[in-house]
Amino acid sequence: MKKKSITILAVTLVSSLLLFTGCKHHSSRGSAFMLDYISESLDLRPEQEQELSGIRDELQAEVKRIHEENDQLYETIKAQLAGEVIDRSIVRQQITDHRSRMDEVIDLAVDRLADFHATLTPEQRLKLVAKMEKFKERRDSHFHR
User: Fold this and answer.
1) Alpha-helical runs (H) found in 43-145
2) How many of the other CB atoms lie within 10 Å of CB of 132?
C-alpha cells in the first residue's frame, strides 16, 4: 500500500511538473506557477523551495531530452510510413527505447520525490495528502459523472 501511495504521489508530481513544463512555449512561466503553488500550499521553507526548484530544473532538462528524442521517433515513424513495408523491428525498437527512457525519468522523479518528501514536516505531509485528495475529488467528479 505504501509503495502504491508513493507511486501515485510520484506520478502526480511528475504529471504536474510535466504538464507545466511540457509546453515549450510557456515552460518557465508554468513551472514557476507550479512551484509557487506548491510552496504556498505547503508553507515551504526557503531551503525546501530551493530543493524543489532544483528538482524542477533537473526534470525539465530530462523532459527537453525526451522532446528531442520524440522528434527522432517521429522522423523514424514517418520514414517507415512512407516506405513500401513497415519494418516492425525498427518501430518496436524505437518504441521500446522511448518507453525505457520514460521509465528512467519516472525513476528519477520518484527518487527526487522521496528526497523532497524527507525534507517535509509532518504538517506539510498532511497538507500534501489533503491536496492530493482534493485533486482526486476534482478528477473523479470530472471524469466519473
Assistant:
1) 46-82, 88-119, 122-143
2) 15
Contact 10/49 with Cβ under 8 angstroms? no
Per-residue confidence in pLDDT tens, the chain, 145 aa: 555 555 565 555 555 544 444 444 445 567 788 888 888 889 999 999 999 999 999 999 998 999 888 888 899 999 999 999 999 999 999 999 999 999 999 999 999 999 999 999 999 999 999 988 988 888 888 777 6
Rounded CA separation 9/37 (Å): 16
**pTM of structure:** 0.68
- Unique residue bearing C-alpha cell 495528502: 129
Domain ranges of the chain: 2-134
Q: Which residue has the cell 473523479?
A: 140
